[in-house]
């Protein structure tokens, strides 16, 4: 699936990944990739600016750690992020239900 | 890029060179300050290191793993545009906040001086606004712009929604309005008053305005640079 197809859904996906616990950027990407069975194949680098945007909005928070001279930034969901995820899930269920209804010929 | 200890990633010299070249290409396109760029590069270096390790764990030779990792991360030019967009949003928010917070403080100094001799603060404010007649017009334009810049690009951005590009324009107008307002106040003070009336109050007001106008000018320059990089 191309990056364009994920437009509008990436924020919700990132929040959902971080719901399972704090993770660094590449771990988030790997979870997206494996969790989607390899369907979400967006350029890895683009996830980092998206995480920064979510942090600016206060939906995720980050912390730096240092191990073996390698700096690592880890992200976690904030209370506002958890609330936003609930809203995004609700919106997605309504949207996907409506699309499925039409795509499967449910409209008379 | 030199500050990132890629040599501690345990990669071959060639693989390290590939990652360093990618990070350098990105660094050259990022419009932010040195500290902001260093943090972005350190985070991406860690991500690239993880990508290489994942490939190597599957039996891919390190140099090929490094090539695959940079390909996986995508075009540095595209990535730089996306990071520039985030930097622009942060700069716009900070600029708006700085103008909103500094406005009353600088205004207080000018009102104190322009309304010297008057007993109430309301009389002082009226005196200041009538003494510098163009000031109310500038404030009517600048203050809402500063509020939009501060509120639509930070944490409140998820609550305050404005059309795309408006936040940047609001930030730019607010900084320009601030420079014009400060220049008008300083110019008016020295045009209308005799040198003998220069007081500590006037000097304080002028110093505050010069400082704020200078910082607003720098912020305007930064906004334009980051906007150009993000588009």
Number of helices of chain A: 4
Biggest chain-to-chain interface with counts: A-B, 27 and 35 residues
What level of helicity do the residues of chain B show?
over 70%
- The helix content of chain A is 40-55%
| Strands side by side in the biggest sheet of chain A | 1-3-2
Residue runs with pLDDT of under 50 for 5 or more positions of chain A: none
What is the H/E string of chain A? Answer: HEHHEEH
The unreliable regions of chain B are none
The secondary structure category of chain A is alpha+beta
Using the alpha-carbon principal axes, give the shape of chain A. Answer: globular
- State the order of secondary-structure elements of chain B, H for helix, E for strand: HHHHHHHH
Mean pLDDT value of chain A: 87
Describe the structure.
Chain A contains 4 helices and 3 strands, in the order H-E-H-H-E-E-H. Chain A is α+β, with helices and mostly antiparallel strands and 108 residues long. Chain A has a 3-stranded antiparallel beta sheet with strand order 1-3-2. In chain A, helix 1 (10-19) packs across helix 4 (79-103). The longest helix of chain A is centred in the C-terminal third of the chain and has 25 residues, at 79-103. Chain B has 231 residues and is mainly α.
């Amino acid at each position: 699936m191309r990056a364009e197809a994920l437009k509008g859904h990436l924020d919700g996906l990132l929040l959902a990944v971080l719901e399972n616990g704090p993770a660094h950027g590449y771990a988030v990407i790997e979870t997206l990739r494996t969790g989607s069975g390899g369907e979400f194949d967006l350029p890895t680098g683009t996830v980092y600016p998206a995480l920064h945007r979510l942090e600016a909005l206060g939906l995720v928070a980050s912390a730096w750690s240092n191990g073996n001279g390698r700096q690592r930034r880890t992200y976690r969901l904030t209370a506002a992020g958890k609330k936003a995820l609930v809203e995004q899930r609700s919106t997605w269920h309504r949207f996907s239900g409506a699309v499925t209804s039409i795509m499967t010929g449910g409209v008379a | 890029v030199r500050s990132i200890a890629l040599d501690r990633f345990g990669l071959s010299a060639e693989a390290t060179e590939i990652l360093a070249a990618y990070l350098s290409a990105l660094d050259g396109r990022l419009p932010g300050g040195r500290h902001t760029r260093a943090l972005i590069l350190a985070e991406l270096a860690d991500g690239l290191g993880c990508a290489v390790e994942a490939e190597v764990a599957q039996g891919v030779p390190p140099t090929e793993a490094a090539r695959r990792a940079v390909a996986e991360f995508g075009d540095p030019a595209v990535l730089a545009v996306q990071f520039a967009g985030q930097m622009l949003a942060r700069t716009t928010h900070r600029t708006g906040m700085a103008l909103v917070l500094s406005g009353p403080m600088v205004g207080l100094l000018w009102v104190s001086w322009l309304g010297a001799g008057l007993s109430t603060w309301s009389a002082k404010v009226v005196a200041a606004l009538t003494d510098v007649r163009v000031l109310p017009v500038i404030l009517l334009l600048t203050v809402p712009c500063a509020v939009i810049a501060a509120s639509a690009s930070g944490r409140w951005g998820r609550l305050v929604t404005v059309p795309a590009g408006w936040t940047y324009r609001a930030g730019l107008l607010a900084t320009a309005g601030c420079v014009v307002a400060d220049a008008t106040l300083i110019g008016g003070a020295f045009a209308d008053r005799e040198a003998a009336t220069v007081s500590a109050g006037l000097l304080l007001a002028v110093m505050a305005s010069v400082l704020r106008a200078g910082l607003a000018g720098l912020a305007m320059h930064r906004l334009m640079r980051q906007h150009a990089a993000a588009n």
